Every structure is written in C-alpha cells, then in structure tokens.
Amino acid sequence: MAVNVRKVETPADFRAFLEFPWTLYKNDPNWVPPLLSMRRDLLNKKKNPSWEYMEGDYFAAWRGDQIVGTIAAFVNHRHNEFHNEHVGWFGAFEVYDDQEAATALLNTAAEWVKEKGYDAILGPQTFTTHEDCGILVDGFVPPILLMPYNPPYYQKLVEGAGYIKAMDLYSFHVSRERQAEIGLQDRLGRITQGVMKRNKITIRKIDQKRLKEEFVVFKEIYNEAWDKNWGFVPMTPKELDGLVTSLGQFFEPDFAFFADVDGKPAGFGFAIPDFNQVLHKAYARPGTPEIFTLLKALWHWKVRPVMTWARIPLLGVKEAYRNKGVDAALYYHVLTALINDPRIQHSDSGWILESNTNMVSIAKSFGSDIYKTHRFYEKKF
After folding, report:
1. Could you give the CA distance from residue 43 to residue 15 in angstroms, rounded to a whole number?
2. Domains of the chain and any CATH numbers
C-alpha cells in the first residue's frame, strides 16, 4: 500500500505515535525503553515546558492501518532569537527501514517548516539541545542515560531524503583499565595540580548539606557555560527547575564538583550512573502497570545493582574562565571520583561538539576515545 502521512489529531493517533517505538525496536537488543510516563510527558505540549516557546505538529506515516513511522515538525522561537536564525526543526523521528516512508515523513516536516516561511530545517532534536539530539551514525551499542539510539539504517534514509550533515556530536569512552594504564591519578594528577596552582583554581565537591543553594549556583552557571555553543539555547527558569528535578533522581554527590577561580564560581562537572542499564532490565511496556516496572527497576538499582557505566553529561565553564585549565581540572576530578567507586568500570563523556576542539583534545589527552557519533542534519530551502 502507498504511504499516507497524516497529522496526529485524535487520542488514538497520539497513542499510536507514543507507542510506536515499542513495535519498531521489539527485536533490537540495544534499545532501552523509557518509562511510558516520561515519554508521555515529553510529548505532552501542556506538560513539556519547551512547548511554551515552540510551535509544531506531530505526524505519522501509515500503510493502510499500520503505522510505519513518526516525526515532529516545529519551530523553536527561542533558538531563532538567540542565534539570529530563521529555521525550523524535526524530531521524534522513528521509522522502519523504508525509504518511501522516511522520505514522506521528512518531506512533510520540511514542507511544514517551509510553509511557515522559514529558510531551512535541522534535526533531529526532541525537542531542544538539552534532550535527545542527533542520529546515531557510528557506535551502535546500548545507549547510555539521556542519549538517543536508532538503527544503523537511519543515516541512509535521512541522506536519501536529501538532508546533509550540519554537525557531529562525539561521545568519548574510557575504561578503568585504560585509566590505570595512562596513570590518570599520578601523571595527569601532577599536571592538573600544577595548572590549578598557577591559575588559582580550586575544585570542591558539592555540599550535600546545602543542596538547595548549590543547585542555585549550578543554575546560575549553566546557561552561561554553553552560550556560544552551536545550537545551544539557554534554558528557561522552568526548564532549569525541571533539569534539577531530573538530576535529583540519579544524582550522586560524590560525582559532582564545582570549580572556583580566585574564589569566584567558574564551572561545574557532574557524572551520573547509567540508569539506562536499570531501565533495560526493567523494560517498560505499554499495557504493563508502571508500578511493576518501577519495582523491577528498584531491584536492579538497589538490591542487585547492574550499573557499571557512568556518564559525564554536564561539564561547563563560564566564558571568562576558559583557557585556564578549569575544564581539564574538573574533568580530572570527576574521572578520579569514578575510579574511586568500585561499581564503575566505564565512563562516557558526551556529547562534545566536533567544533569544540579544546574539549575534544582534553578528552583524548585523558585516554578517552570516540566510541559514538551522533549527527545533526539540515535541508535548506
């Protein structure tokens, strides 16, 4: 049957859109299903604070009565204002290995953006730089926490629809064995201490007794730390509050550090255990009461822990203190904290923009290697 793409309008349409990934990935051992409540809140325009400054629609591709793919087309007005651009986006892109369906979805999103009068479409992004970004084009292993995953054929389908590369995002991996091999705590420790002394850098753990105040400092630094990054848009107060709440679910104080330069807040670096390993064991499913999934997750989190990976998703330095070694000092302290935790055997540092050559160089100097690449695509009109 021919592919028919139509806007998601009815509750039945929305449910099909919401649950499609469970059908698409049912035989993929790498996919980690999110909690249905989390996915529902992400897609709910009344609950997701990003939709306060975005406009857009959801679409699904059908062959007869079978859904074969999904996509969102939207305009992020804060992005356009912050970067002085005039573009739209696509996200929530999932599809079978079906070029006709993929092209129909991507063309529908492009036409939606074009008809609004914009100059180009970029993506995928669901729905901001603080959430799922890019198509995985290299490193098809189970995704780490807060990272998207897709089958290898997505790159072929997107490029087959006329989209071209806009930017790559790197994820770096280093194992406990590799850290011991390069002498992280000895050789690199001495170098880091020398840099800290020369530039009056001090690193401290987050204060567990003052978490509320500490997260205020975190929020003050967050937006400034990435304000010049490609595609970055500052979070709204409501989004920052949401980020803090989300971090609180997985937060471990021993993995969180602040940097001061000459006594003034300059940056932060946080690592979080890979809760995706727990979610993969719990395996949320449509039709299964979420309380059962949460009980399984609790077992694999606290009773029989399965987390052997951690991710460093947040490492930022204020512009005034860059090129002083603050980022390297934070990176060293976070990695050292992970080494000192016997549970953690592997760490992921990502994303790092390919254009962020300084951080790419630091990660490599600490023995990390690129093991995954996600890619943004664009189509100009």
Report:
1. 11
2. 3-169 (3.40.630.30), 173-372 (3.40.630.30)
